[in-house]
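thought: fold this chain, then report.
action: predict
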Amino acid sequence: MIKIQQNTLYGEAAARIRDMINEGLLLPGTRIPEKRLCEQFGISRTPLREALKVLASEGMVELLPNRGARVMRLTRQMLEETYSVMGALEGLSGELACRHITEEEIADIQALHYQMMAYYKRKEIRPYFEFNQRIHDAIMLASRNEVLRETHSSLNHRIQRVRFSTSMTDEYWKQAVADHEAMIDCLLDRDGERLGNILREHLRHKLVVAAASGVIDDDLAASS
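observation:
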């Protein structure tokens, strides 16, 4: 593993641990192996613990008094509450984007969509998710609202391991792609109301995927 550069220690460490959680390399409820990660990253305990504080603020890691840290468990209630807020934010982003987006931005999003569709047809799920995320980010950027973007980004870190879970049925994946086709139509028509509704419903479907992916843990007693 490539050593982390000194000028980006805790930020880069946080990014790597975040990726490990999202990719299922660190499972919900498990302890963060601080010693092993320090060796892999080539850093000391201090920047690693600063990275864990960042992840704790994002709701991805739970800090344990005098016992290190562990990956946060996700409960159905937590996800429902988070998705409820994020759905409102994404819906608003769609409404605002249709007011402010330029023709060039729409063309860029269309290009991302075509590439995403190519990955979908080849069943290449990881690059599909990458371009899926880029489309949502582009719509959020087109909202021209920095507070909205920052709030959404903070919540998105918390549920990204669910939002981009590989445990998707063919039926769900087909529906997700159909939603994205409809999003493009709404952008072309500047139909903010419809785009907002599609984005809200699109996110709500993810709770079904979360239930199938095994990342939801409603046994709170097990987290002690």
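thought: worth noting. The two ends are 33 Å apart (CA to CA).
final: tokens above.
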